[in-house]
Amino acid sequence: MSKSATLARKATASNRLLVIFCFFAIYIIWGSTYLAIRYAVETIPPLYAAGIRHLTSGTILLLWCAAKKVRPTMAQIRTGIVIGVLFFLAGHGPLHWAETRVPSGLASLLVATEPIFVFFLAALSTRKWHFTWKLGAGILIGLAGVALLVGRTSLTSSRGMLIASFAVLFGALSWSAGIVYSRTSNLSGHPLLLTALSSFAGGILLLAVLISVFTRPTKKKDPGAG
């Protein structure tokens, strides 16, 4: 066997192992986060759990950026806030709330609609449609799967669970909008800085919403009224 053929076989085996590892990461590492969220929101308020999670990760990454002497500009900070709203406030906020009502498996399956949303939003933003019959078939199958999941949920569960399912889809749509926006933002050239700023901003926004909602003073009824 020639040397080139041996190298080709090794490259093929290496690529196969990489594909297996990627699927492992998707199913185990990525998928397990939804189970972790489910356990967290059983005892911790959803927005608090999401806010602390992202504020902690954002702080660590910002410190890492500071160690690497990567400092953001004001334009990058503003962009990070926008992405923080799309990714974490409007994306993960509804997801954490919904997982108090829907199983983590259903939540992760509904979030898997993100590629479909990204395709349509990217096409709308660029006004370019790279459409093929294979892509169309994939989108139709994906939408049919979501309709089957949500439809089955509506028939076999309470109204609250159905609303929670749509909340997950809304979060997936918002996250997809953040992906499309980040591709054209000022942070697109530095992934570490993008993640740090958006996660930090998202954590602060989630906690700010939590505080504003649950610490709002209630009006006391005047005993002498009426």
How would you explain this protein's 3D organization?
With 226 residues, the chain is an all-alpha fold. It is 79% helix and 0% strand. The protein contains eight helices and no strands. The chain has helices spanning 3-40, 46-67, 74-98, 104-111, 114-126, 133-156, 159-183, 191-214. Helix 3 crosses helix 8 and helix 4 packs parallel to helix 7. The longest helix is centred in the first third of the chain and has 38 residues, at 3-40. 29% of the residues are buried. The mean pLDDT is 81.
Protein topology:
Elements: H1 3-40, H2 46-67, H3 74-98, H4 104-111, H5 114-126, H6 133-156, H7 159-183, H8 191-214
Quick overview of this protein structure:
The chain has 226 residues and is an all-alpha fold. The protein has helices at residues 3-40, 46-67, 74-98, 104-111, 114-126, 133-156, 159-183, 191-214. The termini are far apart.
Based on the model shown, name its key terms.
226 residues; mainly alpha
Largest sheet: none
Structural class: mainly alpha
| DSSP strand count | 0
Average pLDDT metric = 81
Low-pLDDT runs: none
Report strand %: under 5%
Q: Order of helices and strands, N to C?
A: HHHHHHHH
Q: How many angstroms separate the termini? A: 98 Å
Radius of gyration: 22 Å
Overall shape: globular
Question: What is the number of helical segments per DSSP (H or I, 4+ residues)?
Answer: 8
Q: What is the helix content? A: over 70%
